[in-house]
Amino acid sequence: MTKWVWKGIRTGVKTTAYPRREETAPGVSPGRPAGRQFAHEEDARAMASLCPTGALNRIKDEVLVNHGHCITCFRCREQYPLSIAWEEGFEWAEFTEKGCRLERPFAGSIHIRTVDAGACGACMSEIKQITGPYYNIHRLGFFMTPTPRAADVLLVSGPLTEHTVGPLRKAYEAMASPKRVIAVGTCALSGGPFGTGFACRGGIGETVPVDIEVPGCPPPPLAILHALLLAAGKRTQAAGKGER
Amino acid sequence: MGLPLNNILQFNEIQDIVSARWQESVKVRIDLEKLIVYLSPEPALLPEVCDWLFSERGYAFATMVVEERDPDWVIRYLFYGPFGAGQVQVIVRFPLSGTTISSISPQIHAADWQEREIEDLFGLFFEGHPRLGDFVLHEEWPEGVNPMRASFDAGKPYPAKEPDPGWRPNRILEAPGSFMMPIGPVYSDHAESAHFLLETVGEDVIRTIPRFFYKYRGVEKIAEGQPAERVVLLAERFSGTSAFAHSLAFCQAVEEVVGIEGPARAKALRVLLAELERLRHHMAAIAGICSSTALSVAAAQASVLEEELLRLTCGFTGHRYLFALNVPGGLSLDLSDARCTGMSETLWGLLERIKELHEMLRFTSSFLDRLEEVGVVSKEKAVAYGLVGPIARASGVSRDLREAQPYAGYDGHLRFLVPREEEGDGYARLRVLFSEAEQSVNLIRQVSFSLPPGPVRERLNMRAGAALGWAEAPRGATFHWVRLDEKGRVGCYRVMTPSFVNWHGFHLAAEDFAFQDFPIIMATFGLSNAECDR
To answer: Measured between alpha carbons, how far is B471 from B249 in angstroms, rounded to an integer?
Structure first.
């Protein structure tokens, strides 16, 4: 078995320096559209009509992005030269109106329970990555726990299918207070491409109280990590969103 | 696999044999250009004809497609043969007022779950099926309301009724001390939602009762009435970890309806991207197997490779999971030759590390002890259940759509091997994953150095029609049946996914093994519930 020990040592440290330093490695995030002003109102109207999920809103000659609906389909990006602005980065997590961080005695070591509410698998895969060597949330005092009773934070992804309403509600009720809910991915925020209908509820917001939202389809691992850091009060929201 | 010449003869014989055996009762039509035989038997003869195709002619059962085409039900049973032997569609029509049809699952067990699903979603009753009832739609869904029927409004909320509080799962085990152990639907780590009831006497799992479809999003119903460009976004979300394969199958079906082949460059790039996805999926599956056996360093090594592939994919195409690349008519993005060869060079370096990991695992006895002779699926069972993908190939069934029914750029000059193992245990499945990963890197290398020039996207002139699209997704064969109207809106969309087919056979591997082997067997299957539930 010593060969594995040596293999591990030889591999060295792969883990990102975020949040101590900024992460700039290529491919950690696909980026996302950012609003921009157009020269003509018709251009803005044409741009807003490209979005298949209604994430682009037009106000006169300006197009604004509602990230809670964006599924990164790139259709607004390919329309060169009239394409939308594209922002790099990954610090996308935001508090909801009523959301707030965990109080100080609980914020040092946070236990996380994941619930899959009908996600396509990409969000679940990105949640898996944050426990892997490149992101390694354990170094920051975050731990996955097998039971909701021991959990402080619930990570939920997926548009909330009817069959997962019961399991999600039970998992939330089993958690001890104080507790926080993080909605991971556009589906959990708005239903994404699945919307609201006979099988999906169009997001988890009406079933459990969401504290932090992470938009993205799927949000990259660092965006999910940013949400966890917000919950622990170790990081703030993007500029202009205020502190909580 | 026999010689293609034999397979072509096998295809040509069908017409003669059918007319000799059933005379006028089975109508035959043959499409030599597309290599498809259409058989229309009288409803009573359906099980006999299907059984003949499956057992005697060796055609594999792909899926069955139900369509409500006023004034008739049209049910298609799709079969496919090895390379050169084409496809067979067995078509049955009967008036919409009738809701009963003979079941083929006593003859072809692979159709078992498909008939149960159709009973739930369409309200058709299969005579002779041993077990119909709640399947896709759980207990709280009222009987007689069938979401895939044209009359059902997908926009209205779930018509839930109170579930019976006295409901108990059906137990067969009556030994002293026996009990039923529930697992899921919320798991201890980041697994997808699904529920298993394991009947046990303490150590060995005697019976596995899976309860899936927690994640039923009704995607095929939502797709109806939407334009094809919009539906491709849904197609790639059947399973986010094999998004490219599913959107590829959907786009190929649309292109077939419209009657275009797609630009040569797009076809070559589709091979490259599909293989990149397969490579990343297999690394994730290997990481899952390593962590299920608690071999942390190996799991970390595989995760490092997986994350590096995700970053590479993102730098290469803009998205970590290859979303939004396939569009009906080609690709949304051109990738330059230099970038493709550059990526294949990077992958060549990565392959060395993958091989090193395989070599180290091969000589770790504590790891092999957990995999060898655990979760065995025999070849006979794999054929009977119609298993697909790496799981079937680990049980001695070398069936691969890239070879059997070539699509995109897989026809012609690309050379690759379809790995096959005989044991059918967890270790055989792991070896198949490693061999396929190596073949994928080889394929990417071949494609990136022989990319044809030209555009990557072709304009579509929409027209009405229906066609089948297929692809060998990382987890196995997937089939997409798409019907479009003249404006390019989807009228009917039915999908068969490898996870659905392989979960059906999961109990074969899980039963009669010890409790602590269950998560390992699950990891060696490496299936997606989102893909199964849709």
So the answer is: 5
